[in-house]
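Allow me, if you will, to draw on your knowledge of protein folds for a short while. I have a record of one protein: its chain in single-letter code and its fold written as discrete structure tokens. I remain grateful for any guidance, and I place the record below:
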Amino acid sequence: MRRTNQRKPRQKHVGEIRTSQLVTSYGVGAMVDFKEESVILAEADGWLSSKEADKKRIIHCRSLEKVLEKKYFVTPKWDPSPHPAYESKDYKSRDIAAYRFPTILYCPNCKRLVMSQTLAGNRSSAPKCRAEDCTGSRLVPSRFIVACPRGHLDDFPYDAWVHRGTPCPGRSPEGELNLKLKNVEGRNSISSLTVFCDDCGAYRSMQDALTAAGLKSVYTCTGRRPWLKIEYDKKPCAETPVTKLRTAAGVYMPATVSALNLPAWTTKIHQVLQSYMDALEDRTEEQALEYINKKIVPSLHDVDGEEILSVWKQMEEDAKTKRPRNEQELYEDEYAVLCEESEEQDFEEDDEDQELYFYTEEQEVPVKYSGLISRICAVPRLTEAVVMLGFTRLHSWNGDYRSSALAPIFSQTEREWLPAVELQGEGIFIELKEEKVQKWEEENKGVYEEMLKAAENSRFREENASPRYVLLHTLAHLLIRALSVNCG
């Protein structure tokens, strides 16, 4: 993770995040506290370039490409080389970028609020207080920020707050802020936390700032998006911003959609062919076979051109079908594949498809549960693609892929790809007997009527909410808990 200060190319390494978290809890637009810096993860524009090394991070998931109308997905880049703790003249990080945020810092010793722009040149160590009457304590991020439902984010307006929206009478417009944030009367609660201006003597408690309309009289949303190169939204924002603790739940909620990479789209031939689909487009079979023999066969051992051509024709036909068109059809397709009987796989030790192939293994249903369960399958290997669409602040995502509430993850225009990660794992598929599930639904539907009515009036998003959904979801979590107890 590298930090870029004030959108300039100078960089330093500030910390590390697991790759899988870069499209979930710490994706684009998320604030992250590292050991010596607090940053916000930068736009995804730099995830993919024309370099050959970057193209290796392109992944495909046929079903999600159709549902989201994208050509492919890109996994996070990362720099495997050793990182110096801070920038050196000969080192330039090649991994994910981040910007310092909040840009207002706080000194725990002298209680001053410091703008990070006043710390120019302080790049060889963690930011420290430069006040003459201070011991040079390390500065920490301000604990308060402001956010709005459109995803905009800004530093808390301490100056406007303490002066109630008017200029400070004791400071020139060009003068530096001389504010302090401290608790009064020896207490440590939010209600006693007060902003003081040393220039004019003004002070004001932070308590009222935390109410829903607390900032309305002193601050309007600036449209700031500190995670983007183009930092301010060109469209004016009419939303009412609210004060939040920097680490509060709801300040950052990633919007992701995931799907399994299903057969036969997980074999080595399919994986390689995905990269050549554009080059093979509009070719006759004869032309395609000539290209395959020249360009693709050398990279696939023990596979002839005719076999690759057959797979390509299958992929071309599939590209013409519209299904899946939405999340519902996507899950239906996954369910259909899991319900199919899979041919037994016999992989050699060095078979590359052993790592990629999706298949199931039939298991015997225990006699004790044969009246409830019709089928059990082990899934020894599966790949899940998790794609990031954007994120929301304050309110959860409503499930609409094109929702205007989704904050952007690119600075410029939309791309033909989205950030994503691939997760490798295994699973268990249990098919319950339909007649038993129907009987349970009839006997228990009255119990769940009130709960489902409450769900309709909440922000809970599940189109298939029903007693059956509650049954299956609860059973799945109980099985996960039991497996974690027995298997670790």
Remarks:
- The first helix runs from residue 52 to 55.
- Residues 5-10, 84-92 have pLDDT under 50 and may be disordered.
- Residues 2-17+88-254 form one domain.
- Residues 148 and 241 are 4 Å apart (CA to CA).
